[in-house]
Amino acid sequence: MSNTADLARAHWNETPLYLTEEARYNEYPWLYEAAEFTQHSGERVCEVGCGTGCDLLQFAKHGAIATGVDVTEAHLALARKRVGDLVTVVHGDMLALPFEDNSFDYVYSHGVIHHSDHPEPAVREI
User: Which of 46, 48, 68, 88 is least surrounded by CB atoms within 10 angstroms?
Assistant: First the structure.
């Protein structure tokens, strides 16, 4: 039997969720402020579960040194295409992030933790 993360990965690889910036922030008008995109200029920011990079790009546009991590190959490819050289995008799992402890000043995640069968260890790792 597949775990929740495997099911999510299979789903997003088959049907990647690629929204334009306009569509994403029209759908979630509160997100721009809640995510603090504009408040981390010069800081090292990591987005766990960066998907296709829409939120990750907002951090970079506002001066953050941004890094995104995701487990979905299709999303990683789309994120790299969207963000170009502005940010680093890497493959990784929220249960075992591929970074040293305390590598970031700010860590952000939206709509990802519920895809884990082990949300408490994921939160501890994040």
Answer: 88
What's the confidence (pLDDT) of residue 2? 57
Residue whose C-alpha is closest to residue 107's, from 63, 62, 68, 61: 68
CA-nearest of 110, 112, 78, 74 to 95 is 112
How far is residue 1's CA from residue 6's CA, in Å, rounded to a whole number?
10
The pLDDT tens digits for 30-74 are 999 999 999 999 999 999 999 999 999 999 999 999 999 999 999
Residue 67 φ/ψ, nearest 5 degrees:
-135, 135
Sign of the alpha-carbon torsion through 59, 43, 123, 102: positive
Mean pLDDT score of the chain, rounded to an integer?
Answer: 93
b/e for 113-123, b at 16 or more Cβ within 10 A? bebbeeeeebe
What is the total residue count of the chain? 126
Scan for tokens 């495997």, then name that residue: 6
